[in-house]
Amino acid sequence: MSIRILVTGGTFDKEYDERTGRLFFKDTHIQEMLRLGRCRVPVTVETLMMIDSLEMTAADRETIVTRCREAPENRIVITHGTDTMAETAAALAAAATGRTIVLTGAMVPWAFGSSDGLFNLGSAVSFVQSLPAGVYVAMNGRWFTWDNVRKDRASGVFESVR
Amino acid sequence: MSIRILVTGGTFDKEYDERTGRLFFKDTHIQEMLRLGRCRVPVTVETLMMIDSLEMTAADRETIVTRCREAPENRIVITHGTDTMAETAAALAAAATGRTIVLTGAMVPWAFGSSDGLFNLGSAVSFVQSLPAGVYVAMNGRWFTWDNVRKDRASGVFESVR
Amino acid sequence: MSIRILVTGGTFDKEYDERTGRLFFKDTHIQEMLRLGRCRVPVTVETLMMIDSLEMTAADRETIVTRCREAPENRIVITHGTDTMAETAAALAAAATGRTIVLTGAMVPWAFGSSDGLFNLGSAVSFVQSLPAGVYVAMNGRWFTWDNVRKDRASGVFESVR
Amino acid sequence: MSIRILVTGGTFDKEYDERTGRLFFKDTHIQEMLRLGRCRVPVTVETLMMIDSLEMTAADRETIVTRCREAPENRIVITHGTDTMAETAAALAAAATGRTIVLTGAMVPWAFGSSDGLFNLGSAVSFVQSLPAGVYVAMNGRWFTWDNVRKDRASGVFESVR
Fold first, then answer.
1. Can you tell me the distance from the alpha carbon of C4 to that of A161, in angstroms, rounded to the nearest whole number?
2. Is D118 touching B (CB cutoff 8 A)?
3. Do A107 and C18 touch (CB under 8 A)?
4. Which residues of D116-148 are buried (b: 16+ CB within 10 A; e: fewer)?
5. What count of other Cβ atoms lies within 10 Å of the Cβ of residue A152?
6. I want to staple B50 with a disulfide (CB 3.0 to 4.6 A). Which of B9, B160, C133, D78 is the partner?
7. pLDDT per residue over D89-126, tens digit each?
8. Chain A residues close to C154, C-beta within 8 Å
9. How far apart are CA C139 and CA C16, in angstroms?
10. Is B79 part of the contact surface with chain A (CB cutoff 8 Å)?
């Protein structure tokens, strides 16, 4: 069972620029995280963009949808900023014919000591193998269907809408 | 969906004793790891034993089986040393009537920088919610049924028997 | 030989706010770092301010100078943002009568995995015990006198002026 | 001011072997630690041996003394297991003509998350630049002369004999 991981950026992949003191994107850490997790699932990692999800445009979402449609795999994980993850999940709903698509992200950059990223990646890689076709968000150890999820901005926790 | 996590020790929870230079068990790190993963699944953590799985006896396995039978939850994660994880999974097979039981562990202690533990915990917590009733091993980002798994000692990787 | 550590903030103590995605100050990590370093030098930690050194005013510097003059200890370490560390060192020069004062900081926040903070703190605590009275900057494993140091902004490295 | 770092092993450089579950030596982490500390002192790192200091023989100590005598640098840091660090310091006393030699180590392996190693390395690199000729032990943020130091086995703390 082969999985495609589409990287779009988000907190997951933010790094600290020690010259400017600002957070920025360089390369994805997904491969390094999979190595640390001793992951042996056949995985193809593809970086689509490296952006903050608050800056994600309709065109960016179209790119993500298109790449999911074209992917040879039926199991796709998308790393994504948490702020608009639910929005992208909704955009993907129509494209999920026969595919299991799981979006995940992190509240704290992986490059920082106390990141939830590795837990979330383990979770997403597992849900994508075991859930039926559909579009899901995997955060906080839980899974949500695309039409029943939102991020509570105050607490940073994902929850069901209904 | 409530989960019970039964702790039995294993590499997961080993620590470094700086006076003797040896590895030893103190308390489980599961709660700390769930906090780091921002896990919001209702979880009850119960420590059954804190031992190396090479030292696990038939009586210890009986204890694990009994606790699974008695647990009010239908979804159970067991943290376990990797060396005899498959053996305990087999012992649990008869007890899994109607329950989903997932065993997981780590190749490197969580207390060390480069542990696979957080990835595996995220994976186990996710598989236990999404797989049908049965006994499974979750390692290397994959899941295995209890009757089709072994650890390859040379590589430290879990694989299907058949 | 007792040491006073005056905390002023700087990258050293920056943390990641997972709700806003921005860096901010909360509490100092100095006590935690000294514990990790198993430091057994008698130390008193005093937080004067928690600010980015680019925002440090003349009044802030006056506060630092005054606290150094009033300190009962002859050995003082000051944690400080790197951008204006040399400026504060110069302001302290007149106050260093009979005292050894060492300023240090970090290029990467301590809360992040790859920080130079612990190395720098070990360095500053050591230089302050072994250098004669004067005002110094301890960065990059080296020490500089207050009148012969600058930070090269492009590389983030401290160097002699002459 | 150029420094030579002689590596002899010790807890500093121990790693976790995930196949056997035992601690072992592979390569030294000193270069990686200096990079993390953004150290800019000219340093030459030389690995003499990779052993637990409890297994250090008289011949091993002779090797260390000889390398110190032959080193072109007047400033030498030696990384060393903590258990017999004081013994090696004593053996070096006669060889320290005109040189500053600082021994340091770690209570917890660098490869583990909670190591004191980076703090100690920052400390040793600083003391070696600022102390007069002689043989010293740098641990716990303090320095000790070779003839006035011992490790308290119960607490793991270095202290003066007198």
1. 53
2. no
3. yes
4. bbbbbbbbbbbbbbbbeebbbbbbbbbbbebee
5. 9
6. B9
7. 999 998 777 899 999 999 999 988 789 999 999 999 99
8. 19
9. 24
10. no
Residue C111 has a pLDDT of 86
Rounded to the nearest angstrom, the minimum Cα separation between A159 and chain B is 9
Which chain A residues are Cβ-neighbours of C119 within 8 angstroms? none
Contacting subunits of A (3+ beta carbon pairs below 8 A): B, C
Q: Please report, rounded to a whole number, the percentage of residues in chain C having pLDDT higher than 70.
A: 100
Q: Is B140 helix (H, G, I), strand (E, B) or coil?
A: coil
> Is residue B30 helix, strand or coil?
helix
Least CA distance to C151: which residue of chain A?
A19
pLDDT in tens, B114-128: 899 999 999 999 999
Q: In this structure, which amino acid lies at residue B159?
A: E
* pLDDT tens, residue by residue, A52-72: 999 999 999 999 999 999 999
| Complex confidence, ipTM | 0.96
Please give the backbone phi and psi of residue B112, each rounded to the nearest 5 degrees, phi first: -95, 155
- CB nearest D141 (choices: C41, C107, C143): C41
Joined together, the tokens standing for residue B67 give: 């606790």
State whether residue B144 sits within 8 Å of chain A by CB. Answer: no
> pLDDT of C81-140, one tens digit each?
999 999 999 999 987 778 999 999 999 999 887 899 999 999 999 999 999 999 999 999
**Residue A80 structure tokens:** 């994504």
Neighbours of chain B (3+ CB pairs under 8 A): A, D
Q: How many CB atoms lie within 10 A of CB A8?
A: 28
